[in-house]
Amino acid sequence: MLRSFRPSAFVPPGFHVESAVHDGAMTVITVRHMIKTSRCPDCTAIAERIHSRYLRRLADLPLAGRQVRLVVVARRFRCDAAFCRRAIFTERFSADVLAPWARRTARLDCLVHHLGLALGGRPAASFARRLMLPVSNDTLLRVVRRRGRPPIPPPIVVGIDDWASKPERRSHRLAKHQGGPKGGSSLAPQGFDACKKVTGGKRHILVDTARRERSASRYSRP
């Protein structure tokens, strides 16, 4: 049974096509997300109130021998949760469609990743230009490194110790975290700041701190 193509069949799922025009050798498709709500990235509460709108310009898979520029009419929402610190946030899309701050759709990023794995840097960039995918060799290698890097779990144990390069100079504090696949260290003038730098400034991380300093007041905070 023959079925007619809809414009939404050429764009990632979940989007509605508003317009499609040819701009030289490029096809510009303007889309809008069909879901009326979005979850806050901090408190995961569902937000409905729209603050404003802006345009996101993304690269997508080629269409009929033309490069495709996807213009997403994205929205900013207001988070009404009383305990949430983020009052305004940009709407989030599905991870298999569009990642936050991405300049390519997820399906195009997956194709770029496989090209980089199969051909490397310059050969993949040359082949990608023939496929109407304008990506550089540096971009291909960055995508391969980013996708091939395993996620690093948050630190479980943080140890703090003092050291000084010379006796007359001010001592520093060295914070090391354990419990992950790779060890790490951070230097800071104060012990608490060293712990904060090791954990990446993330909240809601439980860390057991081992200290070797006689004055514990500098390390502990309520």
Keywords:
flat; single chain; 222 residues; alpha+beta; 11 strands; five-stranded mixed β-sheet; four-stranded mixed β-sheet; 4 helices
Structural write-up:
With 222 residues, the chain is α+β, with helices and mostly antiparallel strands. Helix content is 19%, strand content 33%. Strands 1, 2, 5, 6 and 7 form a five-stranded mixed β-sheet that branches. A four-stranded mixed β-sheet has the order 10-9-8-11, covered by helices on one side. Strands 3-4 form a two-stranded antiparallel ribbon. The chain is flat, with a radius of gyration of 24 Å.
Roughly what is the average pLDDT, rounded to an integer?
76
Largest sheet composition: 5 strands, mixed
Portion in beta strands: 25-35%
Number of E strands? 11
Number of domain modules = 3
Low-confidence stretches: 171-191, 209-217
Number of helices: 4
- Helical percent range? 10-25%
Query: How would you spell out the order of helices and strands?
Result: EEEEEEEHHHEEEHE
Would you tell me the structural class of the helices and strands?
alpha+beta
Q: What is the CA-CA span between the terminal residues?
A: 69 Å
Radius of gyration: 24 Å
Shape: flat
